[in-house]
């Protein structure tokens, strides 16, 4: 089990760079080839990682012999077409969230994955978190209500300031797709399908920029969920989930890095390595990564929140 698993990376912006840095520390996953529609992004990447090969196009990268998996870190619009190319070449595809805003293309992709047994997963990092494992370990029927609060002093956040304009625009970007989607994924994995009861979204008047406020009420499974999100305030990037059960509660803050249990004390399970899960996906072993159907269900909830 020590042989390398060769990765091709498409999309070399903020997230592509972060993933390349993480992959550098993994024993088996080995990025070998990269491509980005922007030649400057390719050039910058080769300066940092001179051993990588620059492909001539997405198609050329995907056709390279010896590749095991494709990682897609472009903005959402090309995710489905690039996934299909990856499947054509028999690659395991690991795609960034949000899956897509094109639901018809996503359904076609999912039908193909199911019919052909293609290997595909989406990068919701909370899938490997101790916080999610803790929520799954507690009795599902105990949950009564969940509160989810997110706020950002500025959108995009400073660490994503170098991302393309798409992230600040309402067609593909905004904090709901970018951040709320992680927590909707957790809610749906623990509780089941979601139904949006009400949602009030605030947009800037320019007709183009992404949302600056979202207040919503959902039922997920049979649990009421209140969401309060906004751009504003002093704190750069803040998130908090409060899960209430009868007589106890669990509060998870800052991407589940801080977990507080009140009225109960259940041992928090250990962290799972997200990259090891990716290796398992490639090798056809069981893993905890969300598939495309699970990610589409998340995105359907997000788009319903934004439409309301
Ligand atoms: N999992 C996470 O925690 C997490 C965090 C941040 C971003 N993301 C996601 O990662 C993806 C990329 O985000 P980012 O912040 O890196 O954006 P970015 O704008 O910084 O980078 C995107 C890159 O993709 C390139 N690109 C655009 N269209 C392309 C195409 N058709 N083919 C090849 N390259 C193309 C751009 O030139 C750019 O270099 C988005 O889906 C985003 O939501 C995920």
Descriptive tags:
about 300 residues; alpha/beta; Rossmann fold; Dihydrodipicolinate Reductase, domain 2; 6-stranded parallel β-sheet; 9 helices; about 30% helix; about 25% strand; binds nicotinamide-adenine-dinucleotide
Write a structural description:
This protein has 308 residues and is an alpha/beta fold. It has two domains: 5-125, 3-Layer(aba) Sandwich (Rossmann fold); 127-269 and 291-307, 2-Layer Sandwich (Dihydrodipicolinate Reductase, domain 2). The chain has nine helices and 13 strands. It has helices spanning 14-23, 39-48, 58-62, 79-88, 103-116, 130-137, 175-191, 274-282, 292-307, and strands spanning 5-10, 29-35, 53-54, 69-72, 92-95, 120-122, 143-152, 194-202, 213-220, 223-231, 237-245, 248-253, 258-262. Strand 12 and strand 13 form a beta hairpin. Helix 7 crosses helix 9 (292-307). The longest helix has 17 residues, at 175-191. The protein starts with a strand and ends with a helix. The model has no long low-confidence stretch (mean pLDDT 96). The structure holds nicotinamide-adenine-dinucleotide (NAD). The site of nicotinamide-adenine-dinucleotide has 27 residues, from helix 1. Nicotinamide-adenine-dinucleotide binds at residues 10-16, 36-38, 41, 58, 73-76, 78, 96-98, 123, 125, 160, 162-164, 178.
SSE blueprint and pairings:
Blueprint: E1 5-10, H1 14-23, E2 29-35, H2 39-48, E3 53-54, H3 58-62, E4 69-72, H4 79-88, E5 92-95, H5 103-116, E6 120-122, H6 130-137, E7 143-152, H7 175-191, E8 194-202, E9 213-220, E10 223-231, E11 237-245, E12 248-253, E13 258-262, H8 274-282, H9 292-307
Parallel strand pairs: 1-2, 1-4, 2-3, 4-5, 5-6, 7-10
Antiparallel strand pairs: 7-11, 8-9, 9-10, 11-12, 12-13
Nicotinamide-adenine-dinucleotide is lined by residues 10-16, 36-38, 41, 58, 73-76, 78, 96-98, 123, 125, 160, 162-164, 178.
């Amino acid at each position: 089990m020590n042989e390398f698993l060769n990765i091709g990376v498409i999309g070399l912006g903020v997230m592509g760079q972060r993933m390349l840095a993480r992959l550098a520390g993994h024993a088996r996953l080995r990025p070998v080839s990269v491509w980005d529609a922007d030649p400057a992004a390719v050039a910058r990447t080769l300066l940092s990682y001179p051993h990588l090969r620059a492909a001539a196009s997405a198609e050329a990268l995907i056709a390279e012999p010896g590749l095991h998996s494709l990682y897609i870190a472009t903005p959402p619009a090309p995710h489905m077409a690039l996934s299909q190319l990856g499947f054509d070449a028999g690659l395991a595809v690991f795609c960034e969230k949000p899956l897509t805003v094109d639901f018809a293309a996503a359904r076609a992709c999912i039908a193909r994955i199911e019919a052909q047994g293609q290997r595909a997963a989406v990068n919701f990092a909370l899938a490997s978190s101790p916080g999610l494992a803790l929520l799954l370990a507690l009795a599902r029927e105990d949950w009564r209500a969940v509160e989810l609060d997110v706020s950002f002093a500025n959108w995009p956040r400073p660490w994503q300031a170098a991302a393309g304009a798409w992230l600040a625009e309402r067609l593909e970007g905004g904090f709901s797709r970018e951040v709320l989607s992680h927590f909707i994924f957790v809610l749906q994995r623990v509780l089941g399908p979601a139904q949006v009861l009400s949602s009030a979204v605030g947009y800037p008047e320019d007709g183009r920029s992404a949302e600056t406020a979202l207040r919503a009420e959902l039922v997920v499974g049979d649990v009421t969920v209140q969401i309060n999100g906004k751009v504003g305030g002093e704190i750069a990037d803040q998130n908090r989930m409060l899960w209430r059960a009868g007589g106890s509660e669990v509060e998870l803050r800052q991407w589940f890095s801080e977990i507080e249990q009140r009225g109960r004390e259940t041992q928090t399970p250990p962290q799972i390595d997200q990259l090891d899960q990716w290796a398992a996906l490639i090798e056809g072993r069981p893993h905890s990564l969300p598939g495309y159907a699970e990610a589409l269900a998340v995105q359907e909830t997000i788009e319903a929140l934004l439409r309301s």
